[in-house]
Amino acid sequence: MFIDSHCHLFYEDYQNDLADVLARAVDSGVKYFIVPATNHKTAAQAIALAERYSSIFVAVGFHPLDLNEYTPERLNLIDEMSRHPKVVAIGEIGIDYFYDRSPREYQKEIFSRQIDLAVQRDLPIIVHTRDSVQDAIDIVVRHAESNPGWKEGGKRGVFHCFTGSAQQAAELFKNQFLVSYPGPVTFKKGTMSDVIKVIGLDNIMVETDSPYLTPVPHRGKRNEPSFIPIIGQKIAEILQTTIMDVEARTTANAIDLFQLPIQSE
Ligand SMILES: [Zn+2]
Ligand SMILES: [Zn+2]
């Protein structure tokens, strides 16, 4: 089985057919879903989904493009929600220099504050970056070094939609972070496949980032978790291995990172 390690199933895009979307995913071998919230409201929505579907697990936090929703009181709400049994991470959090929707220093400050919460709760983080990979690496490494007990013996988080270099990935792996890859691995342009060739399967996961980043040949349509095997197949081709190998390793990595109370098949 596959796990979709990042899909925003609370969006309106799915409100009329989520049961069908999940059934199609299961039919294509995608059995569990990590749903990262983007603010305190979508966190509550994501938790409601997780209470309805045993296959859904949740991350709670403020996305760097949603910092207009952020207040210290609302971060306390996130702290409370993080105690829910189906919350497995703080996320998605990070910094985004592409849209620059809030000042960069402010983004870094709120990112750090949310990592502090993850450290206190001893949870892993789901990190969003755009044109900001190295700054985000510097911030997480600083937190990892000053908190050696954070997820001791386990993994501390994932950089999702990873666009960094193999060298940057190596720095993350050394500090117990993983990276994950979405639909754009199937695009002709881009450097993801060169990086994957170097880093292999030890520390990677697959994700759709639904409803965004739809893989070829469905590009232009709404994305959904049932497309995960397309990404797995592409990674198998890049690494000249089997899709079963990619499936087994990425699923084991997701279970390990999020400490999911499930068995890999
Ligand atoms: Zn993101
Ligand atoms: Zn996302």
Describe this entry's structure for a reader.
- The structure is a single chain.
- The chain is an alpha/beta fold and 265 residues long.
- The chain has one domain: Metal-dependent hydrolases (TIM Barrel, Alpha-Beta Barrel), CATH 3.20.20.
- It is 42% helix and 16% strand.
- Strands 1-2-3-4-5-6-7-8 form an eight-stranded parallel beta sheet.
- Helix 2 runs parallel beside helix 3.
- The longest helix is centred in the middle third of the chain and has 18 residues.
- It is globular, with a radius of gyration of 17 Å.
- The structure holds zinc ion (2 copies).
- The site of one zinc ion has 5 residues, from loops.
What are its keywords?
TIM Barrel; eight-stranded parallel beta sheet; 9 helices; 16% strand; binds zinc ion
Count of helical regions: 9
Question: What is the CATH third-level topology name?
Answer: TIM Barrel
Q: Report the structural category.
A: alpha/beta
Write down the CATH class.
Alpha Beta
Mean pLDDT across every amino acid position: 97
Using the CA coordinates, give the radius of gyration.
Answer: 17 Å
Percent range of helical residues: 40-55%
Task: Please tell me the total number of domains.
Answer: 1
Task: Sketch the topology as an H/E string, one letter per element.
Answer: EHEHEHEHEHEHEHEHH
Silhouette: globular
* Largest pleated sheet: 8 strands, parallel
- Give the total of beta strands: 8
The CATH superfamily turns out to be Metal-dependent hydrolases
The parts where pLDDT drops under 50 for at least 5 residues are: none
Distance between the termini: 6 Å
Largest beta sheet: what is the strand line-up? 1-2-3-4-5-6-7-8
Q: Strand fraction band?
A: 15-25%
